[in-house]
Structures are given as C-alpha cells and as structure tokens.
Amino acid sequence: MKDEIKKGTNESKEERKMADKEKKVSNKPTKGEEKTGNVSRRRFLKSTGLVVGGAAAGIYIGNNSHALAHETPIKDGYAGTVLRVNLTTGKIIMEPTTNYEIGKYIGARGLNIKTLYDEVKAGTDALSPENKLILGVGPLVGTRAPSTSRMTITAMSPLCTYGESNIGGLFPIQLKFAGYDQVIISGRSKKPVYLSIVNDKAELKDAAHIWGKGAHEAQDAIIKTADAGTQVISIGPAGENLVRYACIKGTGKNTAGRTGLGAVMGSKNLKAIAARGTGSTELDKPKRFLEINKKLYKGIEAVSDHVNGICATQVPKNFMVDPSLAVIGNYEASSMEGWNNELLDKFDKDYIDKYVGCAKCPIRCYGRTNVPGLPKTIVACFPMGDFSSRLKSTNLVGMVENVTMCNHYGLDATSTGAVIALIYELYDKGILTKEDAEDIPLDRRDKDTVNILMRKIAYREGKIGKLFAEGSVRAAREIGKGAEYYVVHTRGLEPPLADTRIVKGKALSNAVVSRGESTRAFGPPEMSSFDKTPKGLEKHEKAKKQMKELYGTEKAAFHYEYDGKGALISRMDIVTTVYDCVGACKFASDAVLGVFGLDDLLQMLSLATDIDCSEQEVFVAGERTVNLERAFLAREGITRDDDDLGEKLFKEPVPSGPHKGDILERDKFEKMKSDFYNVRGWDVQTGVPGRKKLEELGLDYVADELETILGTSTAKG
Ligand code: SF4
C-alpha cells in the first residue's frame, strides 16, 4: 500500500497544473486557431491580460530591445530575451537572445560560460560587484519533454574558481514562460533587495524584511505577497555571510548546491529572485513531439521500480551497488557497523512517504521524508550520505534534522559534510584542540554537534565558524600543522559521496572536469563491474564490448583499471554538458541512469528548435562549452597541477571492507590525466586548451587571449 502511495504521487498540485497548462496550450493549437505568430500572440495577451511595454512597465529597454519577444509564445525553443540587471545602478535592460551566439552554444550552461568568459575579466574577485551571476534556461525547458526543467547558474566561484550549479523544480519553467533565456546580474546593491520578474516586468524590491531569514522562510514570505504560481530561488544566512560554499535554494527544496553561488548572491546583497511567467511554448510539429515523449515516458515507467526514489535511499543500495563505496568519515574507513542495505530499506519504509521529482520528470528521484516532530523535507542521495556515512553516523532520523537545518542556513550539503568530517579528523589527530573548539562539543559527535557546527559556520561565529566558513582548503592553510594533507578536494571544491580510491574513472572526472567534481558525469560502464548478479554480469559483458569498440580497450569497463578512462570520461563529460545546455537532467542520461540517451535528446531538440541537430554538431557545441570553461580556468592560472584530489587518497589505502587496499597510484593517475588532455586536444604539460582545438571550435579569440596571458607555449597544440 505504501509503495502504491509513493508511486502514485509524483507531481505537486502546482506541477500538475503546469503540466495541464502545457498540454492545453503548448503542443496543440487551440481549435480554430492557426499557429501563426499573430494569433498566438493574441492568445498570449488574452491569457495574461498584460499591456506590454518596456518603459511603461518601469523597465529600461536597451538599444536592441524587442519587447515583442515577451508577447509571443516561445517558438523554436527560445523565449527570445536576455535580461540584464545592474544592482549598483538599478538599471534593468532587455536584449534579444539573437544578439548572442545561441546556435554555437545551444543555451543554458553553454551560453552562460560564453557570457562569463567574455564579460568577467581575469582576476576578478568572486565576491566583488564585478562578478556576474548568470541564470540560463535551455531550449527544452517549458516543453513537455521529460526531465527538462533544469537551469544552470554560473559565476566566478569564491570556492573553486569556476562556479556552476544546476537546479530543477518549477523556477526554470516560470523564468522561461516569463520570456527569458538568460538573466545576467552584475554590480552590488547598497541595501538588500530581491529581483521580481513577472513576465516583462522586472524590478528590484526591498528585501529588508527577509534579510536574515532562512532560505525557505524567505521564499514563503515572498510567495505570500506574489501572484499565484510564483517560484523563488533564495539564499539563507550562509549566503548573506559570504560562506564560500553557501548554496542557492529553490522552492520545493530544489538546490543549486555546489561551488558557492549563494555567497555570490550574498555579496551582491541579492536575497532572492522571484519569477512568474504566463507564457507558453509552441512547437512546429507538436504531434511528433508528443509521440516521442510518450515513448520516453513509457520507457521511464518501465524502469520506475529501479529509478523512483533512487536519490533517496537507492543510490547507496542499488545504483552504487555497494554501500561500501560511500565515503566514511574523512576517507577513514570503507564500512561501519550498521551501515548496510537493511538500514536504508528500513528508513525508506518507515520515513519516506513519497517519491518526488522535478516538474515533468517521471524519474522522481528524490524522497520526501515524514519523520514525527520534523517538518517534511526532501532527501537526495548526496545530503543523505553527507550527514550519515560522511559523519560516521547511522542515525538517519538525525540526518533528516541536519538536512533540514542545512537547507535553512543555505549551505551546500556536500561541502558541509566534508568540512565537518575534516574538523572531526583534525580534532582526532590533535591538529585542532579543545581551545580551538571553544564551546563546541567536538567529542560528542551526534546530530546536535552537527547543528551547532553548521550554525557557527553559517554565521561565521567563533574560531571554528570563521575558519571553516572559508572552505576546507583555505581553513587548513590557515591552521597549518600539516592540516592540508587531510583535505580531499579539487581546486578547493570538496567531492561528493563515492570513494574515488575505488572507482578510478570517477577519480579522474573529479580532477579534470570544469567545476572540480562531476556529480553526475561518471561511468556506468565501469560501475557495471561491481554487480555480480546475473543481470549485472550481462550488463558488464555489454559494457566491455562497447568500451572495446569505442576506446580500444575492455579495461575502461572495470572500476579498478586506469586504461581507457581518459577517452571515456572526456566523452561522458561532453555528453552531460549537452544535457545541461538544453535544460535536461544529466541524471537521465547514459552517463548516469541511461533512461534516455543522446539520440532521444537530439530528436526532441530537433523538433523543438531550429538547431542543426546532427549528433556531431550538438557534440561540438558541448565540446565548445567545456573548452571555454577550461580556458576560463586557464586564464585564472589553473594548470594541470590543480587537477588533483589531495595527497591523502594517494597515500592512504582503503583500510577495511571489500575494497581494502584500494588506493590511487600517482603515476597511473597522472597517465589517465595525460590521456584525457590528449583526447581533448589540450596541452599535456599544462592542461591548457591548444590553439588547434580552439580554432577548430571557432574560438580563435580565446587562443589569442590565452597566448597573450600565458605565453605562446601554453596554448600550442
Ligand atoms: S532525475 Fe531527479 S533531479 Fe533529474 S529532473 Fe528528474 S527528479 Fe529532477
């Protein structure tokens, strides 16, 4: 009975309303109406009751303004407008998306890095007004395609140089329906504000009454006075206090968790962004589009037993195959008493009352908890591990309480779990002392200690709070006494969940991908080598053949092998980047769950847009995106040496359990990196994209700039 309840309740009321609305207006012309721009425009105006007019609506319109973009339905996948907000001057302008090289980058993550690279100068302080916070929604957002309600947020990161995080839920759809493909926020407001976007009316509003509130409390306060259907993203106290791993929370507990983008918002005195759009999408071939979607929805339904709730408890249980892959403490063990499938099953049975997901996503990968005495919340795989195995705790009810507080403060759960695990280990090793701990009971490692630590960090209180609000690397450098050795990170970002001493491709991807960890881009082929069930063995045989065909070696299909991983990870990273660019969820891709592949995505894209959707073209757009991201890093002085994970994983083998003795071997790891750079066309000595590759991608100006900044030798290739 309980399972039926879980499966039968995917979408919230608001999500269902949104889906119904799409069914009605998006993919089918209304009876009697032709699908011409004018008729559709009339329908849109009628539905909104808006009198559209930039200046009249209190908006400054730039020279290239085209207010009509907001009056017509979204055609060809793009809403048509980029919104620019300068918080220093209060000036808000709109520009046509066609001013931007949309075809070359597809949208969202691609278009965001193009803006970031071109407009944020090398050496910019991430917490200065000169940094830009960029929101991008891809062309499939707002259509009926499954798992396509994702938005990428990009900025210079205060934690790890390149900042990028992805968020789902209803906010991206509202932003698209309001008429925007991208929002670019610069400057710093003198006083706390929030940005309100209602169709083509964008304005800055006073946020004094919500400054200091928890992330979700702030959202509730805005929603109370806003139009029905408004969705909000916001920061909590951690973002306001510039904690370098503060996150951005969305309504429905969605999160742009990684790389400290909440601190970027805080540095701009921007508490929240609210979006409400009454637009719609219109497709040229709605029937064909619906047919494909139907097929995809059916396919996902067929694997629902496996994928529903996978981010709640099933990741450690099924997908990761083996709970001993989860990081325990600060990489101090590979198993602990009571950490097993039975524990996760019991938690699922007793406390997860519903599997939930982003709008239009039948995967419903999250679990909603119902724990007596606690507000209902959403748990996903990473926060679940971050506040249990990561802290050597099997108290999953305590984990729910910690996740709730983490959401309230607006901290990134993964960095927070890693930072607290580090604090514990440094204390155990005598590097942090009782005097350093001040009033924090570091000997008592329960949920309450975790809550105290989070509060101290979010408000930068006391010695520990101030130190660790800076992130683990900066804190360890400040502490000295050898503390840096214990930090596992790439360019300052703490990695999630899986112990990368065991899974070599995952180790490589964490080290080399743009933001410094690839939460969702690693290798099911290599993961298949864990599964010893008959079905698993069959999958593994297939993976071996596929790896041999694609990369010339079966070894890429084994988690403990280093060969073939350079090419495998390079491809997976580019494919998942394409998912980000179109607004689809990487979790659905072949790189993770495999519920729909690149070919399915391309079919949907070709029916929704004018883009040349040959696999080659789209792949090149993804390649262009990751190359520009890498060039952004190179311009900031990042080189091959920074593509690392910290010494600990190369010196200390997994101490116990089924993977006892696994370790990263430095020479083999470096060889994997070289393989990766070679496949990418990057300089093997420096990890900088080569001129030849950049020119191939039409990025000649980037090659020129890198040569000027870094010297000719670094950008050769
Ligand atoms: S797979 Fe999960 S994260 Fe991705 S769109 Fe679906 S519900 Fe959201």
What features would you describe in this structure?
The protein is an alpha+beta fold. The protein has three domains: 36-276, Aldehyde Ferredoxin Oxidoreductase,  A, domain 1; 303-486, Aldehyde Ferredoxin Oxidoreductase Protein, subunit A, domain 2; 504-690, Aldehyde Ferredoxin Oxidoreductase Protein, subunit A, domain 3. Helices cover 42% and strands 11% of the residues. The protein is built from 30 helices and 15 strands. The N and C termini lie far apart (61 Å). Bound molecules: iron/sulfur cluster. Iron/sulfur cluster binds at residues 147, 168, 357-358, 361, 363-365, 585, 587-588.
Predict the CATH topology of the largest domain.
Aldehyde Ferredoxin Oxidoreductase,  A, domain 1
Please name the CATH architecture of the largest domain: 4-Layer Sandwich
Radius of gyration: 24 Å
Which structural class best describes the helix and strand composition? alpha+beta
Instruction: Count up the domains.
Output: 3
Helix run count: 30
Question: CATH class of the largest domain, please?
Answer: Alpha Beta
Q: How much of the residues is beta strand, in percent? A: 5-15%
The overall pLDDT average reads 86
First and last CA, distance: 61 Å
Query: What helical percentage do the residues reach?
Result: 40-55%
- For CATH, the homologous superfamily of the largest domain is named as Aldehyde ferredoxin oxidoreductase, N-terminal domain
Low-pLDDT regions: 1-70
* Largest sheet features: 6 strands, mixed
List cofactors, ions and other ligands: iron/sulfur cluster
Per DSSP E runs of 2 or more residues, the count of β-strands stands at 15
- Read across the widest sheet, the strand sequence of neighbours is 2-1-6-3-4-5
